[in-house]
Design goal:
GO terms for molecular function: calcium-dependent phospholipid binding. This is Copine 8. It comes from Myotis myotis. The structure is a single chain. The chain has 233 residues and is an alpha+beta fold. It has one domain (6-209): Rossmann fold (3-Layer(aba) Sandwich). 33% of the residues lie in helices and 18% in strands. It contains 7 helices and 12 strands. It has helices at residues 8-20, 61-75, 85-96, 118-128, 146-152, 189-196, 200-210, and strands at 28-30, 32-33, 36-38, 43-45, 48-49, 58-60, 77-78, 105-111, 133-139, 159-160, 163-164, 170-174. The strands form 5 sheets. A 3-stranded antiparallel beta sheet has the order 4-3-7, with helices on one face. Strands 8-9-12 form a 3-stranded parallel beta sheet, with helices on both faces. The chain has a two-stranded antiparallel ribbon with strand order 1-6. A hairpin with a 4-residue loop joins strand 3 and strand 4. Helix 1 runs antiparallel to helix 2 (61-75), helix 1 crosses helix 6 (189-196) and helix 3 (85-96) packs parallel to helix 4 (118-128). The protein is globular and about 80 Å long.
């Protein structure tokens, strides 16, 4: 934590969050933490509301997410193991309830690449590949991201217990490729945006096409109300 600049997680969250937030109409984002001991009793959780309110984990815009993230860092104790499956399953529960094409869910995971439940995570991804959702994993820090590249599934489709994912729903982006040597500046927001969003359109369309869902008719273009001014002479 540095009072004068964002840490690497904060930078990644802000940069990538600002890219993806434009695809959300109300800009209210549920934000979840995983891998920490929670107050007051120190229980370990892999699926907790960053704003401390499990009934309403929604944050107002990316600024609200950032605020909740930094506030939670002051109250929780970071703790292993690092399990991804609970958060993926959390979003999958929402996605499984809206299969008519009216909503599509994107889960953004910011991680240092360490994962303790690889087998369960693969199973969660295989199950989620049937649902209207995509996962963007942003890797932060200097680690080897072999496990994240495997989850990305570009070269070998993710499988679990002999079952392959119905479609590729994961995009992995190593954040260090987009920042300068000091680690404080993003070299190109445009390139980061392009790579973060590279696979989402095809993933979205592949779900809709496979389900035979056609686009809804476009709403009529907005026309500002006209004011008729009457003047009396």
């Amino acid at each position: 934590m540095n009072p004068y600049q964002l840490n690497a997680y904060g930078m990644a969250l802000k940069a990538v969050g600002e890219i993806v937030q434009d695809y959300d109409s109300d800009k209210m984002f549920p934000a979840l933490g995983f891998g920490a001991k929670l107050p007051p009793d120190g229980r370990i959780s892999h699926e907790f509301a960053l704003n401390g309110n499990p009934q309403n984990p929604y944050c107002d815009g990316i600024e609200g997410v950032m605020e909740a993230y930094y506030r939670s860092l002051k109250s929780v104790q970071l703790y292993g193991p690092t399990n991804f499956a609970p958060v993926i399953n959390h979003v999958a529960r929402y996605a499984s309830s809206v299969k008519d094409g009216s909503q599509y869910f994107v889960l953004l995971i910011v991680t240092d690449g360490v994962i303790s439940d690889m087998a369960q995570t693969k199973e969660s991804i295989v199950n989620a590949s049937k649902l209207p959702m995509s996962i963007i994993i942003v890797g932060v820090g200097p680690a080897e991201f072999d496990a994240m590249i495997e989850l990305d599934g570009d070269d070998v489709r993710v499988s679990s217990r002999g079952k392959y994912a119905e479609r590729d729903i994961v995009q992995f982006v190593p954040f260090r490729d987009y920042i300068d040597r000091s680690g404080n500046h993003i070299l190109s927001m445009a390139r980061l945006a392009k790579d973060v969003l590279a696979e989402i359109p095809e993933q979205f369309l592949s779900y809709m096409r496979a389900r035979g869902i056609k686009p809804s008719p476009a709403p009529p273009p907005y026309t500002p109300p006209t004011h008729v001014l009457q003047t009396q002479i």
